[in-house]
Amino acid sequence: MRMGYIYIALTILFTVYGQLTLRWQMARAGELPPALAAKLFFLLQQFTNPWVLSALASAFIASLCWMAAMTKFELSFAYPFMSLSFVLVMFISLLVFGELFTWHKVLGTLIIMGGLFIMTR
């Protein structure tokens, strides 16, 4: 059972890393061009960026960890833990990227945490 929690934690860790890294690198890459062909070219160019590739690899590793977690827990028990990724991404985005802090985000986070607490009891 303990390994199941480790698998969930690793899923969250790799998910958060991937999301934050993609946010960082896409902000550095600039605006998405308006034309469809230019959009496609812009996005395909990102596959030459090692950071973007690491974020995509992280998503894949998170999926493997999640598959392992599914061997230890019922989905209805394990899935609410994934809400922690939303909370972590929000707080880290506030700190690292200087994203906007609002009371709506705080309230939403408290509701998520309350729901997680209730569902895991």
Can you describe this structure in just a few lines?
The protein has 121 residues and is mainly alpha-helical. The protein is built from 6 helices and no strands. It has one domain.
Can you lay out the helices and strands and say which pair or pack?
Blueprint: H1 2-29, H2 36-45, H3 50-70, H4 75-78, H5 83-96, H6 103-119
Would you write up a description of this structure?
It is built from six helices and no strands. The protein has helices spanning 2-29, 36-45, 50-70, 75-78, 83-96, 103-119.
What is the approximate shape?
A: globular
Classify the secondary structure makeup into a structural class. Answer: mainly alpha
Name the helix and strand elements from N-terminus to C-terminus, one letter apiece.
HHHHHH
Which ranges are low-confidence, i.e. pLDDT below 50, for 5 or more consecutive residues?
none
